[in-house]
Design brief:
alpha+beta; 2 domains; 6 strands
């Protein structure tokens, strides 16, 4: 493929992305996009929190939050899929939006999935189950220490 064709495709995609109210054409840079192995336009997304493989991923342009979490190995058992936060860095006003994958996956009032933009960061928080697991483990450890202390002091 020649270079001018790829440049034309890149600018066409950039024009489509600028329909977003928060991002202006000047906010996108050529460095925000990559050409993948299959000649597909890709963007970099950061994935943090309760996923199996957090990190920076290149995903096809137009990927959703579900695609990105799947690319990161899926959620862990302690992921709060109803409270996912996506931080958008492009635009005049960087902002954070919430995404509820629980609703989407259970088909209850399923909203459309958020489409990722270059440089977005996806944070999958921990659920309450994680807190209780740690709390029970801590209390169990204290009980073992108290029991050992009791047994030692009783044998004196």
């Amino acid at each position: 493929m020649n270079k001018s064709f790829l440049t034309g495709v890149l600018w066409a995609v950039l024009t489509l992305l600028t329909v977003n109210v928060f991002a202006q054409p000047s906010d996108f840079k050529k460095d925000d996009f990559y050409l993948g192995q299959n000649q597909q336009l890709e963007i970099e997304i950061h994935v943090w929190g309760e996923v199996n493989r957090p990190g920076v991923y290149r995903v096809p342009d137009g990927s959703t939050v579900l695609d990105v979490i799947s690319r990161a190995g899926g959620p862990t058992q302690y992921a709060a899929l109803g409270r996912i936060k996506v931080s958008h860095t492009l635009g005049q006003n960087p902002r954070t939006e919430k995404s509820d994958l629980d609703k989407y996956l259970s088909k209850e009032k399923a909203d459309t999935l958020m489409v990722m933009m270059p440089g977005d960061a996806v944070m999958v928080p921990r659920n309450a189950r994680f807190f209780w697991k740690d709390a029970v483990r801590f209390v169990a450890d204290l009980a073992v220490i108290a029991n050992v202390y009791y047994l030692i002091s009783r044998n004196r």
